[in-house]
Amino acid sequence: MANSEACASALELFNSITTQGEHVRALKARNASKDEIDSAVKMLLSLKMSYKAAMGEDYKADCPPGNPAPGINHGPEATEAEEDFVDPWTVQTSSAKGIDYDKLIVRFGSSKIDKELINRIERATGQRPHHFLRRGIFFSHRLGSNSYHDSNCKEVSTYIKGDISFLPPCFFRWLQDVFNVPLVIQMTDDEKYLWKDLTLDQAYGYAVENAKDIIACGFDINKTFIFSDLDYMGMSPGFYKNVVKIQKHVTFNQVKGIFGFTDSDSIGKISFPAIQAAPSFSNSFPQIFGDRTDIQCLIPCAIDQDPYFRMTRDVAPKIGYPKPALLHSTFFPALQGAQTKMSASDPNSSIFLTDTAKQIKTKVNKHAFSGGRDTIEEHRQFGGNCDVDVSFMYLTFFLEDDDKLEQIRKDYSSGAMLTGELKKTLIEVLQPLIAEHQARRKEVTDEIVKEFMTPRKLSFDFQ
Amino acid sequence: MANSEACASALELFNSITTQGEHVRALKARNASKDEIDSAVKMLLSLKMSYKAAMGEDYKADCPPGNPAPGINHGPEATEAEEDFVDPWTVQTSSAKGIDYDKLIVRFGSSKIDKELINRIERATGQRPHHFLRRGIFFSHRLGSNSYHDSNCKEVSTYIKGDISFLPPCFFRWLQDVFNVPLVIQMTDDEKYLWKDLTLDQAYGYAVENAKDIIACGFDINKTFIFSDLDYMGMSPGFYKNVVKIQKHVTFNQVKGIFGFTDSDSIGKISFPAIQAAPSFSNSFPQIFGDRTDIQCLIPCAIDQDPYFRMTRDVAPKIGYPKPALLHSTFFPALQGAQTKMSASDPNSSIFLTDTAKQIKTKVNKHAFSGGRDTIEEHRQFGGNCDVDVSFMYLTFFLEDDDKLEQIRKDYSSGAMLTGELKKTLIEVLQPLIAEHQARRKEVTDEIVKEFMTPRKLSFDFQ
User: Do B3-55 and B333-457 have matching folds?
Assistant: First the structure.
């Protein structure tokens, strides 16, 4: 017991150093003042000294206490991976393969979704795991003590909270189906308003347009509630109460450490993490769950959103609520390469749901970063590189057929398949997907949106 | 023009120094760390140096730029008055007469309610000014460009926002009557929850009890809306939107300067000033005012609440709303003397609405600080001191008859009236006041409270 406590506190120190390191990088990234950076670096060094004093050895970024020897790579690559920067607003890496997700798991202190867990989920649900799970697109989790992977998973009182901005929604639909649980989708239009140069009406307008896209993905209206923060705060007897509860238990020091806020940030930004966190607790939705606080929330999100929910999981026991469980996905890569995540503000950075067949073709052909060789001859001889080829990465998201995908991987790697052919395959997968989506979206009337966004009872099975 | 701009910027600097000085005092008052205090003092000194460089002379606390020579008192008393400390949570002075309110007007940059303004209000309303105005209990204002004191005041689109905790509500009733406007009463139960060791339910419970006392004062239900923040946030389509708007336009640096928050404060406290501010804008109450944003808010409050509304007035033009107008009152003194304001948590610090006739008698006799002499002989010879006598101060609040009050002042000052007799007079004024209040409060049913706290249309005259 004493030993495991010592471990926990060493781990806490380790995590503080990690967080402080991220903070320093964030300061540098935004060209903060020398004073600010110096003082953050001083704090970092002092934490590292405490760590050495406690552990008898230097802090190593990829070697948390109680986790001996990740071994293999302590050389230049370790240093390079340390350059990855991930927070809710910025994702950057210098590697064309994208972020080193295994290192992120270590740094964030989450757990890997391994083959065994996927098998257990398959046994528990009786369903073939979604290809996002099979292919490691969801690669990390914080499932803690809940039992999604136990045989009684259907009886777990759970709801799913989604923030769908950068994730293909099919995975949410799959989860909702196999667990048969309610799904609440938070649209943080207040965040958009606080961070961007928008009016409230514009921010809300975007949320409604977003809702149409979500609805067009075919969610069951009896099990799905979509809400805008700006709208729902004034309709829910429970939401604001949870916001205040969370806000009471998080200090500015904490959000400064987690999100890199500074004294010049607006008090709106500073207090926003509590708004993001509150829907993780079921009594934020009294219309759905009454005053029950024991229903656990499962949050599938891109890994860059993890800081919000690390904070939420810290706060939960302090205010008597269960910790939300998390499933982390990789980033949907930008067409230009996996160094950054796609950006909604750059029309060429990704395929959008509004794109025409022609735009899709042009974008893929023109902008999708290729892992092919410089000449056809070289390509035929040495083969292409699927690890950095964005068209191939997109296929892992959108092509459900495992055999076909594997065949493409082999053919492209061997040089049998040329870049033009790979891109053509992707275009032929995307064009009907997007066209069907657009057709379904046209059917989504304002009345249907209103219905989805009206607080009401949802149907669910558990007690 | 250039000249007045220079003045404005010197005044800004002056105000920054004042604010920073208050911040230093706040840090000292709460025994902040040496580092924190040192860094705040350093900032203060640097501001003072900038001021001297800009103005060619030293910063003097009671001599703002463009306001030549308050003259009379630059000696020890000026220093003493500088020791007054006033913010929303702490009011302290070393003088038994209480805070030097004239100095506060200079320091806060508000305006004095003088005889001329009172006469204009009398002419405009056709009503005798309330004794709180006649006697200088409301002593300061920020009425700006509105026209409460013009002949057309009845046509001004105004509502009154009250935070009644430490002010006898009769003044609000008088204002509501003479201007015939809606009154909204904000009960900041979220603030109580954030600052104190209470549950949400407890904080809300106190708010409801508080509402009963307010209702018992006889407010017109057709013109009065009472709301708890915790409750109303989830019922108003407009409140949260205004909160976010305000939060976007206020930085942590600003609330740090105004309220003395530190990095260790909860993000709830840090963002709370926006909650306090939002009801100053009429579209926070769509049930009452629709989406109108042009209706001006008049806020009578104790002067220690001014920082919230200085902030609100700063933000208002940035978000396209009219600035709220303010009337500032002195503090209701503690029985023990005017050095501090009364505290709800110390039962002997004031007369409470729940006190029995006997408790009133005992408290006044035992705890009310006396301005009388040590012996009857001395008292008869030299007279008592009304300026420090708390019983006399209470009479200025509760005895409406000016002639009678003046007679008491004369008799006590001359020594014709003894302290026991003065206290007896106060007891005889308070006992029926409180007893009547208690009788009326008993009539306030839960249904009536619910009605007052239900968002709904209110009646008003203006266009």
Answer: no
Split at pLDDT 50, 70, 90, the class of A332 is: confident
Helices A267-277 and B252-259, interaxial angle, to 10°? Answer: 110
Distance of alpha carbon A388 from alpha carbon B107, whole angstroms:
64
Q: Number of A:B CB contacts under 8 A?
A: 125
Q: Give the tens place of pLDDT for each residue, B105-127.
A: 998 899 999 999 999 889 888 89
With vertex at residue B449, the alpha carbon angle to CA B444 and CA B450, rounded to the nearest 5 degrees, is 145
Report the CATH superfamily, name and number, of domain B333-457: Tyrosyl-Transfer RNA Synthetase (1.10.240.10)
Q: Report CB contact under 8 Å: B253, A263.
A: yes
Phi, psi of A424 (to 5 degrees): -60, -40
Nearest alpha-carbon partner for A201 in A187, A185, A214, A189 = A189
Task: Report the relative pairing of strands B138-142 and B111-112 from DSSP bridges.
Answer: antiparallel
- Residues of B near A (CB-CB distance < 8 A)? 190, 193-194, 200, 230-231, 233-241, 244-245, 247-253, 255-256, 261-268, 270-271, 273-274
Q: How far is CA B306 from CA A196, A376, B275, B309, in A?
A: 31, 75, 15, 5
Q: Which fold has domain A3-55?
A: Helix Hairpins (1.10.287)
pTM for the whole structure: 0.79
β-strand partners of B138: B329
Structural domain spans, chain A: 3-55, 87-331, 333-457
User: What tokens were used for A284?
Assistant: 């934020």
ipTM: 0.79
Q: Which ranges of B140-199 does DSSP label H, i.e. alpha helix? A: 170-179, 189-195
Least confident of A288-297, B26-35, B62-71, B166-175: B62-71
What CATH number should be reported for the domain whose range is B87-331?
3.40.50.620
Q: Mind listing the pLDDT tens digit for each residue in B138-184?
A: 999 998 755 555 544 444 567 888 766 556 678 888 988 888 889 99
Residues of chain A neighbouring B247 (CB-CB closer than 8 A): 194, 266-268, 271
Residues of chain A whose beta carbon is less than 8 angstroms from a beta carbon of chain B are 190, 193-194, 200, 230-231, 233-241, 244-245, 247-253, 255-256, 261-268, 270-271, 273-274
- Residue numbers in B near A256 (CB within 8 A): 263
What is residue A41's predicted lDDT score, i.e. its pLDDT?
A: 73
Q: Is there a contact between B268 and A253 if contact means CB atoms under 8 Å apart?
A: no
Are A235 and B230 within 8 A, CB to CB?
Answer: no
Return the minimum-mean-pLDDT range out of B151-160, B366-375, B420-429. Answer: B151-160
